[in-house]
Structure formats: C-alpha cells, structure tokens
Amino acid sequence: MSTRSQTTSRRRPNGGAATRLPREVITELRRVTWPSREEAVRLTIMVLVVSTIVGLFLGGVDYVFNFLMTEFIIGV
C-alpha cells in the first residue's frame, strides 16, 4: 500500500505546477520570434496613427449625432 507522500511524488515528478509553469514559460519565450527595433517602432507608429484616425472619426460621428439630437429631437 502506498503512502500519501509516494502518491504525491508520482503525480509531481518535476516538482509540481508551481515550478513547472515558470520553466515552461521561459522555454516558450525563447521560441518567440521577437521583432527588430525598427519593426517595433514602425508598428507602434502605425498603431498610433490608426488609433488617432479612428478616434477622430468616432469623435466626428459623436459630434454630428449630438448636434442632430439637440437641434431636431430635443429642441433645446
């Protein structure tokens, strides 16, 4: 008959999830293809430009709807 410690050690041959997870994360991060500095800067600028354009568009749509609501529907 096996004791509890033997059963536990059979389930966790590598020390358990607490130590296995960080090792697996480090292994996966070594496999990642990291972008070059130039690519990271280019993509960051692209995200900022697209975000600004979308923000301006949504702000304009909001302004138009706000104007229409106050002038024609609410009548303030």
Provide an overview of this structure.
There is one protein chain. This protein is mainly alpha-helical and 76 residues long. The longest helix has 38 residues.
- pLDDT below 50 for ≥5 consecutive residues: which ranges? none
- End-to-end C-alpha gap: 84 Å
Query: By helix and strand content, what is the structural category?
Result: mainly alpha
The run of helices and strands is HHH
Strand runs, count: 0
Task: Using the alpha-carbon principal axes, give the shape.
Answer: elongated
- Fraction in helix: over 70%
Would you tell me the overall average pLDDT? 85
Strand content: under 5%
Rounded to the nearest angstrom, the radius of gyration is 28 Å
Number of H- or I-type helical stretches: 3
Layout of SSEs?
Layout: H1 4-11, H2 17-31, H3 37-74
Can you give me a brief rundown of this structure?
This protein has 76 residues and is mainly α. The protein is built from 3 helices and no strands.
List the defining traits of the structure above:
76 residues; mainly alpha
